[in-house]
Here is the input.
Amino acid sequence: MKKLLLCFVLLAASVSAFAQTGNDIQDRDTNLLKAALKGWHVRIGAGFNLGGTSPLPLPRSIRSIDDYNPDLCIALEGAVEKQFEDSPWGMHIGVRFENKAMETDATVKNYHMEAVNADGSGEIKGAFTGHVKTYVDNRYLTFPILAVYHFGDRWSVSAGPYLAWMFNGSFTGEAYGKDVLDEAGIRIGTDAYIRDLDPTGEKTEVTRATYDFSNNLRKFHWGLQVGGEFRAYKHLSAFVNLQWGLNGIFPKDFDSVTFSLYPIYATVGFNYLF
Here is the structure.
């Protein structure tokens, strides 16, 4: 988290420096650019995504989230925006490169699991009780299409759908058990086990097993985005938005994960306004 905050400070400083050094060039070209775009204003932005890929609601098989790490998720966007004449309303169309990543560690019971045993004994499949670590890192080209409402010259809010194409994705993890010790401190096993096929099947102890569903991820995504923006200077604004995915990251016919997972992320960053 400290690295994430440091990167955010450096990003803010870089954008601010760029805004100051670019003012003279921008001022000379503003009228020509506005004439060419006929009222559409160009902007570029950068920020960080914070959030996770989660089922809604959490299934009963996930008993607790023991650890969460948002990882470093960067969003870079170019967009055009137009405010309609004599109206506070406007329109925003953009294209954004971004990644949405996280790591979680959860305690589960009777959690459907398909994995490969780390001891080389082959695949396991059934109702798993123990601990699960999940690693998600997906990269998208996202196209937001937003309605914008302006409150004066500085504040605005926006909302609308987005479409996204995932061009690179990773979904991996491991199921594992923690050592169980007797009164003398001697290891007698682990607290993780799997029952064959369903919760009533044959019970087998699990030390560690891994899975990789990266090739099963859905390519096309869509959802809703809402946000707000504050124009701090003539050419610099700060923004925050929330993106809520409305289709799961896996296709409906993928049954190795038995519940839908939705990407839900907030983006905080800065825009340079031409």
Residues 1-6, 18-22 have pLDDT under 50 and may be disordered. The helical segments are 2-21, 23-37. The two ends are 32 Å apart (CA to CA).
